[in-house]
Structure formats: structure tokens, C-alpha cells
Amino acid sequence: MMISTEAVMGTELMGTDQSVGAICDLLFDDETWVVRHLVVDTGHWLPGRQVLLPPIKVQNADWNAASASVPLTRREVKESPSVESDRPVSRQMEIELYQHFDVPYYWGPAGATLAGSGYTPMPLAAGLMPMDQVENDDIQRNHLRSIKEVSGYTIQGTDDHVGHVHGLVVDDVNWSIQQLIVDTGNWWPGKKVLIGRGHIREISWSDGTVTVGLTQDEIKRSPLYEPVV
């Protein structure tokens, strides 16, 4: 199912015993455009803590009702590696997270991916190298970006400014990002349109700008966005 990121935000995740929290952000790989981690606010039962959960763990999602389940206990979530919200997630942290939740990792060639790279999934025991064999640059290298970070980015067309990123549309089967939701702003007030990911030419993370290969007229002919959930 195609879902908007705004529909995902706030979804409560029910564990096998009780709620483990609500989704407050998504981290995606800016090379493959696949969501790699759900950022979950644990709320009152674990105050001041956010945890990362693999999206592959999500089951029985009802985005209309803002609810889904995960086959995890509160204890499993509580004992997951701590994530510092003010620091980037390193590859070492990702390795520890995937080990803890017993899911295959997505980088390769020994790894697996949820979508798009052609690697064959394999168990952690077969796929992960011991930590002392992982090169330092491999530990540090990833391409994770926050959905919250991208929301609000300026979108530049081939002839003029065409709006800003309002959100993204995600396939909740493989968690790949398919489209940008674009708020066209003052030049076409009150409109939101969908732009396929393939139209993106460049993203400047430092400037907060997305360049697309479309003119304003082509943007006007794009499909209008209506909430998909």
C-alpha cells in the first residue's frame, strides 16, 4: 500500500505485551530511497527515550487508525542499543541494532536489503562479520536521512522555484520512497502535487534544496495529492 509519511507519523506500535511507543520519524537511505529505521518515542513508560526499530518488524498496520503491531516485548525494546538523538546513527550502531532485533542487515555484499539492491537475505549468523573484522570506514559510512529533515526543503524546477517538500509517499511493503508530496506555495496557492522520485536531479543537503527536472507548467500537470490513507 502507498502511504504518506504524515499518515505514518504518530502511529502507535503495540508490542506482544503492551504499547512500545509511537512513530515520530523515519530514517531513510538517501542512495536507495528506502526507509531503514523507524524512530519511536517510547512515551511515559520509558521517559526521555527514543528507539530505532526495523520497519520489517511492523505487522497488521492500520494507518487509518494509527495503529500497528510489532513482535517485541517492552523489555526487548528497552534493552535495545541506546540512540543519541543529537548524533548521526553510525554503521556500528546499526550493526548492534540489527543484532539485537535479529533481522538481516541491508548493506552488502554479505548483507540483505528490504528493496532494490538484488542481494539475497540471509540470517545474521551467516551475514554479519565480527566487530573486530569490520573496517572503520565501513562502521561510519551510511547515508541515513530523517524524513523530518527533508520536510520543508525547497524544490527548484528547471525554470523557477516550484514549492517545498510537504511529505513523501512510501510503499509499506518494501518501505521504498516512491514520490515527493510538493506544496506549490504562493505561485499556485492551495495545491499539493505528486512528483515521482525519478524526476529528482540533485539534493543539496547543506542548502535544503531539491532540484527536479520539471518546469512550473509540468508541475501543474502533475497528479494532485490527496491523502492516500
Features:
alpha+beta, 7-stranded mixed β-sheet, 229 residues, SH3 type barrels
Describe this structure in a few short sentences.
Helix content is 17%, strand content 33%. By secondary structure, the chain is an alpha+beta fold. The chain has two domains: 2-145, SH3 type barrels; 151-220, SH3 type barrels (Roll), CATH 2.30.30.240.
In percent, how much strand structure appears in the residues?
25-35%
Mean pLDDT: 84
Helix-strand category: alpha+beta
Order of helices and strands: EHEEEEEEHHHHEHEEEEEEH
Number of domains: 2
Instruction: Give the overall shape, derived from the CA principal axes.
Output: elongated
CATH topology type of the largest domain: SH3 type barrels
Weakly predicted, low-confidence segments:
109-140
Helix content: 10-25%
Over the alpha carbons, how many angstroms does the gyration radius reach? Answer: 18 Å
CATH H level of the largest domain: which superfamily? PRC-barrel domain
How is this fold's topology laid out?
Elements: E1 2-4, H1 5-8, E2 12-14, E3 19-29, E4 34-41, E5 50-53, E6 59-62, E7 67-69, H2 74-78, H3 91-101, H4 124-127, H5 136-140, E8 144-146, H6 147-150, E9 154-156, E10 161-171, E11 176-183, E12 192-196, E13 200-204, E14 209-212, H7 216-220
General description of the model:
- The structure is a single chain.
- The chain has two domains: about 1-145, PRC-barrel domain (SH3 type barrels), CATH 2.30.30.240; about 150-220, PRC-barrel domain (SH3 type barrels, Roll).
- About 15% of the residues lie in helices and about 35% in strands.
- The chain has helices at about 5-10, 75-80, 90-100, 125, 135-140, 145-150, 215-220; strands at about 1-5, 10-15, 20-30, 35-40, 50-55, 60, 65-70, 145, 155, 160-170, 175-185, 190-195, 200-205, 210.
- The strands form two sheets. Strands 1, 9, 10, 11, 12, 13 and 14 form a seven-stranded mixed β-sheet that branches.
- Strand 11 and strand 12 form a beta hairpin.
- The protein is elongated and about 55 Å long.
- The chain starts with a strand and ends in a 9-residue tail after the last helix.
